[in-house]
Design a protein that fits this description.
This protein is of the alpha/beta class. The protein contains 4 helices and 8 strands, in the order βαβαβαβαββββ. 29% of the residues lie in helices and 28% in strands. Helix 1 (8-26) packs across helix 2.
Length: 170
Amino acid sequence: MTSKTLDAEQLLTRMCDSTQQLIETRGLDKPYIIGIHSGGVWLAERLHQHLGIQDEMGVLDISFYRDDFTRVGLNPKVGVSKLPSATEDRNIILVDDVLMSGRTARAALNELFDFGRPASVTLVTLIDLQRRELPIQADVIGGTLTLSSDQQVKLTGPSPLELTISQRSK
């Protein structure tokens, strides 16, 4: 199996800088950073630090909100969502590692709205694979990537962050 490592730190820097610019441009007051378990949480922690936000960040585990839950069953690593602040009327910065089909982002939005109605949700992702199955797009992207059908991408971390493209095992 061949693999290639991408510069995750460079993509993260681009993602953080673009998010800061978007917050300033839109005038988002006191954004609430929420990461999607697990890679999105690692990135959200770094973004949270980069932006110098004092409020605690949130963590979403969307396992029970996935639309393939009944087909693939319960992930043995299901965790708990932790939102230490209310989401009602807040400007949410939702962070995920890879945007592909849009299904993870849809599940995260469903869960977020169960906690309350945010003023806005800004989707931030490190990599966009541009293979949508749902009409969802990120507001901020660290980079785009085109993979062949036999390739996959994986973020490992949290320290160091590494983004690896590999051939799917047959």
